[in-house]
């Protein structure tokens, strides 16, 4: 049983949203949208987020609060004689792999932050921001130390537990990120040539949509809401029974959409204003944002502040990925938390080393046609997350007693039976079928 609790509803929402609003939305969404055609991808992403994503988020919330358990034990609690606990194990593996490359990007942020103190980022030699990124990521010592530093920061917070660690960090950093993002949107939209970027981001060209686009958008929807790995099962297990689950779910989804929209309006106007390509890949945010800040008054100061806040937003996502692994391992014995958090965190760091070297020492290492970093990203986002989401949706909607689902869903909420029945139908049929259709379209 859960021995720790969120101290407030807003603390839970900000922590849950922080799990998504970090790199999943700010870093990954813009570059994936850039490589998948912009507006059409973003439209599909929003539709999937509001339908499939929201239904699945509620399913994880219901399961977590109903059982008061995290990954593995939540499934065992409902179905003690089955093999459904493998959903939780799959989620833990996916979270481990996800954070192994996600923490690499967290290390890049730290490296950029350190360099920004001397104004080296917004004023690189010859104004070549791409060359600066290549210089940083090709240095194994710089990115290696930064990568380790990111994981140690994550460990130090998670070892404090939910209330004193994860919630405390999220409550202060997330609102600050919103405020600075609003400033950046205004500045980005006032750049010469910015409108072309807005059109690319928001005007859909559905003729360019393929099965790959649908699968990538689905994976991004799950990535952006931290779904498919039982993170939200774990987080909601710390919720009190009086919390309004539908309202909390919608709050997380709407905050995620808002930040996704703002991230696109910061990145793509800058891409086109500086005549850069939107399909540059994972390094997009590190080559565009410095250029945007470089054009601002006191740009170096603003960029430094943004990197600090970006670091904390990134950490809030990392917290959830470590917590989902640690909670089942300590089995409610909080005295084991510190030791187990360090073990898990350092193992993730070790697993991330090949991804960290993929842009430098191991850049020529061909792994099934791509670098190791991109292949791990693809495996997690396009295979493991949709698979986990499919299994969670089936388990919650079919295996948990309907009476328990209804009671848990409507407790503390003013929603009626009609809302519950709509959600149950969506979870039983729409979500699994949508995932299967997207997978089949890839064959």
Automatic annotation (TrEMBL):
Entry's localization field: Membrane
Matches recorded under Pfam families: SNF
Keyword Membrane part of the UniProt annotation: yes
Family annotation (SUPFAM superfamilies): SNF-like
Regions crossing the membrane: 12-29, 41-63, 84-114, 141-158, 170-190, 221-240, 252-274, 301-326, 338-359, 379-398, 419-442
Topological category with respect to the lipid bilayer: Multi-pass membrane protein
UniProt-listed PROSITE patterns: NA_NEUROTRAN_SYMP_3 (PS50267)
GO cellular component annotations of the record: membrane
Keyword flag Membrane: yes
Annotated protein name in UniProt: Sodium-dependent transporter
Classification lineage: Bacteria, Bacillati, Bacillota, Bacilli, Bacillales
């Amino acid at each position: 049983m859960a021995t720790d609790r969120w101290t407030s509803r807003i603390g839970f929402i900000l922590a849950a949203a922080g799990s998504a609003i970090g790199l999943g939305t700010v870093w990954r969404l813009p570059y994936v949208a850039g490589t998948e055609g912009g507006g059409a991808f973003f439209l599909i992403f929003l539709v999937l987020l509001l339908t499939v994503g929201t239904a699945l988020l509620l399913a994880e919330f219901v399961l977590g609060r109903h059982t008061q358990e995290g990954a593995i034990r939540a499934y065992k609690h409902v179905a003690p004689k089955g093999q459904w606990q493998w959903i939780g194990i799959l989620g833990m593996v996916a979270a481990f792999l996800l954070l192994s490359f996600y923490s690499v990007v967290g290390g890049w942020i730290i490296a950029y932050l350190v360099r920004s103190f001397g104004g080296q980022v917004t004023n690189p030699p010859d104004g070549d921001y791409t060359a600066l990124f290549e210089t940083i990521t090709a240095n194994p010592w710089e990115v290696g130390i930064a990568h380790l530093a990111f994981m140690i920061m994550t460990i130090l917070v998670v070892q404090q537990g939910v209330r004193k660690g994860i919630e405390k960090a999220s409550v202060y950093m997330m609102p600050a990120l919103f405020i600075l993002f609003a400033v950046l949107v205004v500045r980005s939209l006032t750049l010469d040539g910015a409108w072309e970027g807005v059109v690319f981001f928001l005007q859909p060209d559905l003729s360019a949509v393929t099965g790959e686009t649908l699968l990538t958008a689905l994976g991004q929807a799950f990535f952006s809401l931290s779904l498919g790995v039982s993170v939200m099962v774990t987080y909601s297990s710390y919720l009190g029974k009086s919390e309004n689950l539908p309202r909390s779910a919608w709050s997380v989804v709407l905050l995620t959409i808002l930040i996704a929209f703002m991230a696109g309006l910061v990145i793509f106007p800058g891409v086109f204003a500086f005549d850069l390509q939107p399909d540059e890949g994972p390094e997009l945010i590190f080559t565009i944002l410095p250029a945007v800040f470089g054009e601002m008054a006191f740009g170096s100061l603003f960029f430094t502040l943004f990197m600090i806040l970006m670091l904390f937003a990134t950490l809030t996502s990392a917290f959830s990925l470590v917590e989902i692994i640690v909670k089942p391992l300590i089995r409610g014995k909080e005295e084991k938390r510190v030791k187990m958090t360090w073990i898990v965190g350092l193992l993730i760091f070790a697993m991330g080393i090949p991804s960290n070297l993929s842009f430098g020492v191991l850049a020529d290492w061909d792994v099934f046609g791509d670098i190791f970093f991109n292949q791990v990203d693809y495996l997690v986002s396009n295979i493991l997350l949709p698979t986990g989401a499919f299994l969670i949706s089936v388990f919650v909607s079919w295996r948990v007693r309907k009476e328990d689902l209804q009671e848990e869903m409507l407790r503390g909420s003013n929603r009626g039976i009609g809302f519950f029945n709509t959600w149950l139908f969506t979870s039983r049929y729409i979500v699994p079928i949508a995932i299967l259709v997207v997978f089949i379209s890839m064959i």
